[in-house]
Write a structure and sequence with these properties.
Strand content: 15-25%
Number of strands: 28
Structural class: alpha+beta
Shape: globular
Distance between the termini: 68 Å
Length: about 700
């Protein structure tokens, strides 16, 4: 069975190297979906509902169609709208400005219905129903249990009960959702900002009832998705229908308000947790009741109990529907919410036990890798010097805290890749993965260069097209462990065929030959050496080898922890995050530079979630109050701390994904650091100055 080389023998993998598309991106040559311009292209816009809930009685587009430059309209998108921003009608016109302007000419008659936009109100008996065919806004209860909860709490010497709340978080991708579509006869070409070109192709084939091989989805560059861009969306079908109706290419890119209202969000979570432990810190029982809202969608559950071994537990969760845009997967769905609540209550339990919070975690965490990570992270943050809560003199208080995380990931066995070697020495690799901004194109290149002994510039990566061999959507941290094995194995096969040609010319065994430093030479006779190009010149025709995913080169499961150091101004309530220490494993690191960038980006997202982000809904109008980047706050340069990232070497395990794991532990680390700094325990995110000042005032009272 094949295996990875030792790290010491690697030229690229396990090392840091620049992105192969860096120059394209900084120069503006990289083409994102928004940059696609086709001859005769029309621009489309969507008319969206101003009401949070209404039946659509009629849509009159006669005035729209009378405007010169309007080429197609759709008025049959919905019979009922369920949130402000839901689709009502669409238009394609010769310019984006014109398409925007004529939206006001649609005449829509609504039958406005009762609505509800907060989970707390939606839970109440008699609340307006989001779905008229359901008797309640509550989803089916999700229950889990193990052991004997009553006996477990009877064993406990200390029992505490707390409630934690996290708000809805919006994805805020730098590149908004959208696509460009073009029909060529009965073939459809789609340039889409998607996390999965193959999933979008198959979804559109089903939705449009046409064969998959007549749809071609292209995503050469993409400005982030974080889970909100899986599969085809309604705008893909709207654009395709408009393009067919107008017999012209159509571009449909959403603006920021549309993005924040309707393209996805991380669901809210409210968790009421009761936890018990023995005097020595051994956890014995936990009980949780939780609910959350994904708007008209689902998926607000949390995987409790999280991280720590608890022999007796019982959990029940309800999704709550409200008249707001649907939730979508967002970097480690459910895990940040679970980590925040669990690691916050662990700190509170440690205080009740008069025990060091780190020791409490060490006692109850069964993961040996994370045990090592705790020690390393604690040393880096200065945990031994950690002082009791609110012990600094003066108004500026310093504190440190920690949190833990885990993730699965793993490779998708259907993934395949093709590596080609040409007689002139050119090399390319084809695989239908997409680079959503994390550096996938670069590691695709490096995997081939590593195997063939070439430089990165010698390999042409061909990715982001559904006509290339299958690769999964970029989500769940499966991309790297899915694409790495087939690329390596295809490169191995192609290399073996090239070495056979050289071996025949030299009349030696192919096993005696090695590719290294852009040349091929004999292991036993160093006088036998050819440059890469001269070796390839022996080929009568290009070599093209395909290989599927295989076991043994990747793995599943990661562990990680993060530590935060903060300063809290007790006079203003302002929090300054000074330093974030992350310790994370991810198997064989393909590119140390982009891997650490992944962690840095995850921490930035955690800072936004913990300190700033909060979708605000007006209960009287059903409107989102802050559907723009002025009032929906995300971190900027001022909020950036010092980053200290350590990736634990577990290269013997093969490749493991890193997208989700580092986006989990930071919320609790920050909240626990704030509590350690000033003594104010904030159990509801975001941690804003008013909450800190209120908590401090209550303590003084």
């Amino acid at each position: 069975m094949t295996s990875w080389k030792k790290l010491s023998d690697m030229k690229f993998l396990g090392k840091s190297y620049a992105r192969v598309d860096g120059a394209e991106k900084v120069s503006g040559r990289a083409k994102y979906t928004y940059d696609i311009q086709l001859p005769g292209m029309l621009h489309a816009r969507i008319l969206r509902s101003p009401h949070p809930h209404a039946k659509i009685k009629s849509v009159d587009a006669s005035q729209v169609l009378a405007v010169a430059g309007v080429k197609a309209v759709l008025t049959d998108l919905k019979d009922e709208v369920l949130f402000v921003g839901d689709e009502v009608a669409a238009v394609a016109a010769t310019s984006e400005d014109l398409a925007n302007d004529v939206l006001a000419l649609f005449k829509v008659e609504y039958d406005v219905l009762p609505f509800v936009v907060t989970a707390e109100e939606a839970k109440k008996e008699g609340a307006a129903r989001v779905f008229s065919h359901r008797e309640t806004n509550l989803g089916k209860p999700q229950q889990r249990s193990e052991g004997d909860i009553i006996a477990g709490f009877a064993e406990a010497d200390v029992v505490i009960e707390r409630t934690f709340h996290l708000p809805v978080q919006v994805h805020c991708t730098l590149e908004t959702h959208g696509c460009v579509v073009k029909w060529e006869g009965d073939e459809l070409y789609v340039w889409d900002s998607t996390q999965g070109v193959h999933g979008t192709r198959s979804g559109m084939a089903k939705g449009l009832n046409i064969p998959e091989n007549k749809i071609h989805v292209i995503t050469h560059h993409m400005g982030g998705g974080f889970g909100s861009k899986f599969g085809p969306k309604s705008y893909n079908f709207i654009a395709a229908r408009l393009a067919q109706k107008a017999n012209a290419p159509v571009k449909l890119m959403l603006d920021r308000e549309e993005e924040l209202l309707g393209t996805g969000n991380r669901p809210s979570s409210t968790q009421k947790i009761k936890i018990g432990a023995k005097k020595d810190g051994t956890l014995v029982a936990m009980q949780m009741e939780s609910y959350g809202t994904a708007g008209i969608g689902t998926g607000a559950g949390v995987p409790q109990p999280y991280i720590y071994k608890i022999p007796n537990y019982q959990t029940i969760h309800h999704d709550v529907h409200i008249n707001a845009g649907p939730g979508a997967p967002m970097r480690a769905p459910g895990h940040p919410q679970a980590s925040f609540a669990m690691d916050s209550i662990m700190d509170e339990l440690a205080k009740a036990l008069n025990m060091d919070p780190l020791q409490l975690r060490q006692k109850n965490d069964p993961n040996p890798t994370r045990q090592k990570e705790y020690l390393l992270g604690a040393e880096k943050i200065g945990w031994p010097d950690r002082r009791p809560d609110n012990s600094d003199s003066g108004p500026i208080k310093r504190g440190i805290g920690m949190g833990s995380g885990r993730w699965g990931g793993g490779g998708v066995k259907e993934t395949a890749a093709i590596v080609s070697i040409y007689p002139d020495g050119a090399v390319d690799v084809r695989i239908g993965t997409q680079d959503i901004g994390v550096g996938t194109r670069t590691v695709v290149t490096a995997l081939v260069a590593e195997e063939l002994g070439l430089d990165l510039a010698d390999v042409k990566p061909l990715i982001g097209e559904s006509d290339f061999p299958f690769a999964p959507a970029s989500g769940g941290s499966v991309t790297a462990p899915s694409i790495s094995p087939p690329i390596k194995l295809a490169a191995e096969k192609a290399k073996a065929r090239l070495l056979e040609q050289v071996a025949a010319a030299w009349q030696v065994s192919a096993d005696d030959l090695i590719c290294q430093d852009k040349s091929i030479h004999s292991r036993t006779d160093r006088s036998k050496k050819l440059t890469w190009k001269k070796a390839c010149a022996l080929l009568a025709a290009p070599i093209q080898e395909q290989h599927n995913w295989a076991e043994g080169l990747s793995d599943v499961g990661t562990a990680g922890c993060q530590f935060a150091e903060v300063e809290v101004d007790t006079e203003t309530g302002r929090v300054r995050i000074k330093r974030m220490v992350a310790v994370q494993d991810c198997g064989l690191v393909l590119n140390m530079l982009t891997a650490k960038n992944q962690v840095n980006g995850a921490i930035i997202g955690e800072i936004g979630y913990a300190m700033l982000e909060n979708r605000i809904m007006n209960v009287d109008t059903g409107l989102m109050v802050n559907p723009n980047m002025e009032n929906y706050k995300i971190p900027g340069a001022w909020e950036m701390p010092e980053f200290d990232v350590t990736l634990i070497d577990e290269s013997h395990r093969g490749v493991i994904g890193l997208g989700e794991p580092p986006a989990i532990p930071g919320l609790a680390a920050i909240a626990n650091a704030v509590a350690n700094a000033c003594g104010a325990r904030i159990r509801e995110l975001p941690i804003t100055p008013d909450k800190i000042l209120t908590a401090l005032a209550r303590q003084e009272g």
